[in-house]
Design a protein that fits this description.
Blueprint: H1 7-17, H2 20-27, H3 34-44, E1 63-65, E2 68-70, E3 74-76, H4 89-100, E4 105-106, H5 114-118, E5 126-129, H6 135-147, E6 152-156, H7 166-171, H8 181-188, H9 191-199, H10 218-226, H11 235-244, E7 248-254, H12 257-264, E8 270-273, H13 287-298, E9 303-307, H14 313-321, E10 326-329, H15 331-362
Parallel strand pairs: 3-10, 4-5, 5-6, 6-7, 7-8, 8-9, 9-10
Antiparallel strand pairs: 1-2
Length: 377
């Protein structure tokens, strides 16, 4: 891999290696992408207090997430179709996370199945659940995650209906790729990607095998999936999932203080302040702008994580300063996966860890636990 110094380097490399429809899928937000842009812009507005002549020779980035020790307050977020960024992408990303000592979250909409990943890695991972209209399918997914010894269940609650991402419609995004001349030409210019996908274990949604309509073609499969998200989803469903799942429960997709207070009373172990990476309600506030009020309201009752826009160790420090106990990264590691497989994901994690370390030093902080609003200008 060429000299990589930051997440943007990985992004540029991934854009050269991965077909347009799949890199667009990973990068896009919904509608006018106002919330997608706000996730980054609002983070960049937050400035640090630079402190000097403080002894920062004994820095420690370690903390705990859900009671488990981690060397950096970071986890890999669930990303649909990660296995279309690189062959066996979910397995490779999980291996990189586990080598770094941080959690990995497998998406319901992954290419590799729960069982594929569990059979290919050494330690437990987290599983992200969408509760679809077929509650029997949701129950089966929870049972499969239990059987695979997943160490936490991340219930995503902000996808009752699907926000449109214009580029996916224009690109004709399907899994596996729909046969279109434009798609074929694009794939032909990326032989390394194509070979990796061909060698991969699966070419479509691994967790949905056996539940999708029999004999469905690419187009009808995509159409079926889009109808499965359930607008009737409610807090009673959260209680139902809590009753089924024996382990740690994380609720992802909270932006509002009132919702955070309800979530804290469900028996969940953590909530994730998130707007789905700007991919759902366009015009919603950025994750970082919603974080302080949520953390102030429920941070003493439940572990608060942040997801949305984290591209650097500086961003991670900003979120910790405003009340997050840890952060999830999605696009940051997906760029690494597209750019270089497992090594690329490891590089993304390492970049953010090193940037956090330097930022702590220049702000006069030795321990992650000491990061608070006092580090901000």
């Amino acid at each position: 891999m060429r000299t990589i110094t930051c997440i943007e380097d990985l992004r540029q490399l991934a854009r050269r290696k991965v077909p347009k429809m799949f890199i667009d899928y990973a990068e896009a937000g919904s509608y006018a992408e106002e919330t997608l842009r706000a996730n980054r812009a609002d983070l960049e507005r937050i400035k640090f207090r630079q402190r000097v002549l403080v002894d920062v020779s004994q820095r420690d980035l370690g903390t705990t997430i859900l009671g488990e020790p981690v060397p950096v307050p970071l986890a890999l977020a669930p990303i649909g179709l990660a296995g279309m960024q690189h062959g066996d992408g979910e397995i490779l990303a999980c291996r990189a996370a586990q080598a770094a000592g941080i959690p990995y979250t497998l998406s319901t909409m992954s290419v590799c199945s729960i069982e594929d990943v569990a059979g290919a890695v050494d330690k437990p991972f987290w599983f992200q659940l969408y509760v679809m209209k077929d509650r029997g399918f949701a129950k089966a997914l929870v049972e499969r995650a239990t059987a695979a010894k997943c160490s936490a269940l991340m219930l995503t609650i902000d996808l009752q209906v699907l926000g449109q991402r214009h580029c996916d419609a224009k690109n004709g995004l399907t899994v596996p790729p729909e046969v279109r001349l434009r798609n074929l030409i694009d794939i032909a210019t990326k032989p390394g990607w194509a070979l990796g996908i061909l060698r991969g274990r699966r070419k479509t949604f691994g967790n949905l095998a056996g539940y999708t309509p029999s004999g469905a073609n690419v187009a009808s499969l995509a159409s079926w999936i889009s109808t499965q998200f359930d607008p009737a989803l409610s807090w009673k469903d959260v209680e139902w999932i809590r009753s089924l799942w024996p382990g740690r429960l994380i609720i992802k997709g909270v932006l509002d203080v009132e919702d955070a207070r309800i979530a804290a009373k469900t028996g969940a172990d953590a909530i994730v302040v998130s707007n789905h990476g700007g991919r759902q309600l366009d015009g919603a506030p950025s994750s970082i702008s919603a974080l302080p009020k949520v953390a102030d309201a429920v941070g003493s009752e439940i572990e608060v994580m942040l997801d949305g826009g984290i591209r650097s160790g500086q961003d991670l420090m900003r979120a910790l300063a405003l009340g997050a106990r840890s952060c999830l990264i999605g696009r940051s590691y997906i760029y690494g996966l597209g750019a270089g497989g497992q090594a690329g994901v490891a590089k993304a994690i390492d970049i953010i860890r090193n940037e956090l370390d330097v930022t702590m030093a220049l702000c006069g902080v030795n321990r992650v636990g000491d990061i608070g609003r006092q580090v901000l200008a």
